[in-house]
Amino acid sequence: MGAKIEGKPIKTIICDDFEAMSQCSADLICESLKAKPDSLLCLPAGSSATRTFQILKERADSGEVDFSEAYFVSLDEWLDLKDESENCTAFMLQNFYNPLNIDKNKIRLFDIHAENLEEECKSVDKYIFDHGGIDLMLLGLGMNGHLGLNEPGESFDSYAKVVTLDTVTQQVGQKYFSKSTDLTRGITLGVRHIFDSKKVILQVGGMAKADIVKKVYESKPSFEIPGTVMQLLDNGVVVLDRDAASSLENVSCE
Ligand SMILES: N[C@@H]1[C@@H](O)[C@H](O)[C@@H](COP(=O)(O)O)O[C@@H]1O
Questions:
Q1: Does the beta carbon of 47 lie inside 6 Å of ligand 1?
Q2: How confident is the prediction along the chain (254 residues), in pLDDT tens digits per residue?
Q3: Is residue 202 within 8 Å of 230, Cβ to Cβ?
Q4: Does 5 fall in a domain?
Q5: What's the pTM value of the predicted model, to 2 decimals?
Q6: Which atom of ligand 1 is nearest to 175's Cα?
Q7: For residue 250, is it within any domain?
Q8: Which of 52, 91, 139, 141 is the pocket-test mutation for ligand 1 (most atoms within 8 Å of CB)?
Q9: Gap from CA of 168 to ligand 1 centroid (Å)
């Protein structure tokens, strides 16, 4: 992408701490779901969203929100794992789909064992198009700026695809596994899905992400830092806690 493309100021909400950030994202998700109960939602595996998922479960249990009519599509998944018991799907089942009793028929997971993964990507794209697009994507930010598994250098002009994982993702991704795991390839929704989504929430917490958050805000939109796509979205919002926002200067908030 040429350096000439200018981004816009990112719509931003800065929360006091991780708990407030998680509550804020849960509020936005509930608001969206109430407006359209049969929304197609895309939620991320990873540590950023775990508390948000607990809050959504609490709210579903209290009847404040109802996920029974909603549909779900996977954001990303590791490929070629010898042991799949700790992959993104397992994480989502454990932390969201099972606790909230989501009907399995309403979840479109990536079939990582499909004979033809390119065809599988097209089939996931079709699922999304057939549902009229994704209504809401909740995203986390990788330490290298990735969104889903859209790694640095990947085009913004693609839908679901198979990707080679960046060395940072290979290393940081170890945190999801109880033993050392070879992470070489992944399958992910593409940045075009992020552009097309009716609402995008990027949720980032913690000091460890402060530097990459600064780059997302202060670099020109570029394939090298996929998170910079937030500067190009009309329907995007970044929800930060104070730690993740601590390196930012001059950010105007909601
Ligand atoms: N592929 C996942 C992303 O979908 C996730 O949102 C992001 C942040 O992860 P975490 O929330 O664990 O920091 O990186 C992971 O590698």
A1: yes
A2: 544 578 999 999 999 999 999 999 999 999 999 999 999 999 999 999 999 999 999 999 999 999 999 999 999 999 999 999 999 999 999 999 999 999 999 999 999 999 999 999 999 999 999 999 999 999 999 999 999 999 999 999 999 999 999 999 999 999 999 999 999 999 999 999 999 999 999 999 999 999 999 999 999 999 999 999 999 999 999 999 999 999 998 777 77
A3: yes
A4: no
A5: 0.97
A6: 12
A7: no
A8: 141
A9: 12
Ligand 1 proximity of 39 Cβ (cutoff 6 Å): no
Residue 247, ligand 1, Cβ within 6 A = no
CA–centroid distance, 148 to ligand 1, in Å, is 7
CA–CA gap between residue 173 and residue 180 (Å, rounded): 10
Domain residue limits at 218: 14-241
Count of domains for the chain: 1
* CATH classification of the domain holding 29: 3.40.50.1360
CB-CB contact of 47 with 21 (8 Å): no
Three-state SS for 203?
A: strand
145 lines ligand 1 (CB under 6 A): no
Question: Residue 88 domain-assigned?
Answer: yes
130, two tokens = 């057939």
Neighbours of 130 (CB within 10 A): 9
Q: Is the CB of 125 under 6 A from ligand 1?
A: no
Centre of ligand 1 from the C-alpha of residue 233, in Å = 20
Q: Do residues 241 and 16 lie in contact, with contact meaning Cβ atoms separated by under 8 Å?
A: yes
